[in-house]
Amino acid sequence: MRLDKFLAHHGYGSRKEVKQFLKKTEVTVNGKRVQDGKQAIVPTSDIVRVQDEVILYQEYVYWMLHKPSGYISATEDQAKTVLDLLKPKDAGRAVFPVGRLDKDTEGLLLLTDDGQLAHELLSPKKHVNKVYEATIEGVVTGDDVHAFKKGIVLEDDYQCKPAKLEILQVNGVKTDIRITIQEGKYHQIKRMFLAVDKKVIYLKRIQMGSLQLDENLARGEYRPLTVEELEQLSKKRLEIQE
After folding, report:
1. Structural domain harbouring 225
2. Which residues have CB under 8 Å from 121's CB, separation 6+?
3. Which part of the chain is the RNA-binding S4 domain (predicted)?
4. Domain CATH for 26
5. Once rounded to an integer, what is the mean pLDDT over residues 87-104?
6. Same domain as 214, residue 119
7. What is the CATH number of the domain that holds 70?
8. Based on the structure, what is the number of domains in the chain?
């Protein structure tokens, strides 16, 4: 791999920008300073340092983000996007959110540059569970649980796949629930509850496939997936392919 491609891949700018970066910044390969971006390196064995910091090769990155309310799940928008939450050193990676959470929805969001993984997690045909916790305006009943299990019909006559609805606690005229779905239609959970004359007033995703939201992540914080989390994703990918 060319050095300029390696550095661009790790967020140090476009190849054109890396050319100027190499002139102004001390970059070494195996202890020798290099200013020519065309130099070939072996990413998995050569030691590349930027101002004495070793840059480890990562073909893809996988970051778990605790999305706060007020951010759009997109890479570009006039409003604030989840990419605005990235630290400067990470902002150069061409990551994108896997799936969408509404602007006012919080919780688990995976950021990656692995397009194949994104497809496998998002396709309805893959049957990947997505688990949410929510507060509902209205008293959720056993009849609602049965209706969700059967498949809610939305206002446009689309029948949702069966969903698992659990009643966690009833607080007067509000109900805390947990719901598991395998789809991701536009405003789906909100529309499902509207279909039974109730309103979602708070929504948070806590799990997607094998990934569970890290409770130690504050809103707006993110971290790389752990080895165990990556192994679970890899295992799921093999199951999907089979």
Report:
1. 62-124+210-240
2. 98, 99, 110, 128, 208, 209
3. 1-59
4. 3.10.290.10
5. 88
6. yes
7. 3.30.70.580
8. 3
Question: Which helix H or strand E contains 5, and what residues bound it?
Answer: helix 3-9
CA 146 to chain centre: 30
Residue with more model confidence, 220 or 60: 220
Q: How many CA atoms lie within 13 A of 43 on its CB side?
A: 15
Q: pLDDT of 180-205, one tens digit each? A: 999 888 899 999 999 999 999 999 99
- Both 44 and 114 in a single domain? no
pLDDT of residue 90: 87
> Whole-angstrom Cα distance, residue 122 to residue 65?
17
pLDDT: is 7 or 233 the higher one?
7
Q: CA 219, 220, 224, 229: dihedral to nearest 10 degrees?
A: 30
Q: And the tokens for 27?
A: 């970059």
Contacts of 171 (CB under 8 A, 6+ apart): none
Q: Is 72 helix (H, G, I), strand (E, B) or coil?
A: strand
**Residues with a known catalytic role:** 102
**139 and 194 assigned to the same domain:** yes
The mean per-residue pLDDT over the stretch 29-41 comes to: 94
The count of residues in the chain is 242
Burial 86-109 (b: 16+ CB within 10 A, else e): beeebebbebbbbbbbbeebbbbb
Question: How many beta carbons lie within 10 A of that of residue 176, not counting itself?
Answer: 16
| 105 and 219 share one domain | yes
Residue from 162, 155, 192 nearest 180 by CA = 162
Q: Do 139 and 201 share a domain, yes or no?
A: yes
